[in-house]
Amino acid sequence: DTEVTQTPKHLVMGMTNKKSLKCEQHMGHRAMYWYKQKAKKPPELMFVYSYEKLSINESVPSRFSPECPNSSLLNLHLHALQPEDSALYLCASSQVHGGRSTEAFFGQGTRLTVV
Amino acid sequence: GQSLEQPSEVTAVEGAIVQINCTYQTSGFYGLSWYQQHDGGAPTFLSYNALDGLEETGRFSSFLSRSDSYGYLLLQELQMKDSASYFCAVSPAHGGSQGNLIFGKGTKLSVKP
């Protein structure tokens, strides 16, 4: 199984809603990531979890809250988002060797629209 | 910090060879990797160079020269399905960013018949 599964594929939410994005992998990878990608732009790193601990938070607003319940699951909790947060949210995972990662596997993403 | 520069667009014809360059400024990194992303899809891994030199994977090859702060992706026998965006990425070795990927801005490749 070399898949990273993200749900939902599409999400429309109002600015007062609370929703969660989910990500799952069963490749035994110990690093998991959330990226945000706007149209015609590269993915931008939001959060990194390494061995289920948050290791990097790239100055992301607190309306985005990550959670890593176990080594296979990664969630992104959303609350009070703004229309400019509309984007493709990508989850990825990778194996970690000696503190470094090489190949990352990406999920198909959740296309989020904030109205 | 890290920055990676790629051409924004490249056009080539079916059957041809195309080279997508990536120049970088970084304080240190473990390796240079390449990802392909079709419109509406997710990035997929193509190749990784930890050491200087050429890595070949089928029609795709990738090259790294740390002394020149330069790498490239070479696509041979281009097919229409190769039309996509191609990103180079580094895994930084310093600054608390170990293990993540920093992406270049991407090169949109258009393959014409």
Which ranges of chain A are low-confidence, i.e. pLDDT below 50, for 5 or more consecutive residues?
Answer: none
Question: What percent of residues of chain B adopt helix (DSSP H or I)?
Answer: under 10%
Percentage of residues in DSSP E strands of chain B: over 45%
Shape of chain A: globular
State the total count of DSSP E strands of chain B: 11
Largest sheet geometry of chain B: 6 strands, mixed
Oligomer: heterodimer
* Largest interface, C-beta within 8 A: A-B, 26 and 25 residues
Counted by DSSP, the helix tally of chain A is: 0
String of helices and strands of chain B: EEEEEEEEEEE
Radius of gyration of chain A, taken over Cα atoms and rounded to an integer in Å = 13 Å
* Unreliable parts of chain B: none
- Percent range for helical residues of chain A? under 10%
Structural class of chain A: mainly beta
Characterise the protein shown here:
The complex is a heterodimer of chains A (115) and B (113). Chain A is mostly beta strands and 115 residues long. Helices cover 0% and strands 63% of the residues of chain A. Chain A contains no helices and 11 strands. In chain A, the strands form 2 sheets. In chain A, strands 2, 4, 5, 6, 9, 10 and 11 form a 7-stranded mixed beta sheet that branches. Chain A has a 4-stranded antiparallel beta sheet with strand order 1-3-8-7, with no helix packed on it. In chain B, the strands form 2 sheets. In chain B, strands 2, 4, 5, 9, 10 and 11 form a 6-stranded mixed beta sheet that branches. Chain B has a 5-stranded antiparallel beta sheet with strand order 1-3-8-7-6, with no helix packed on it.
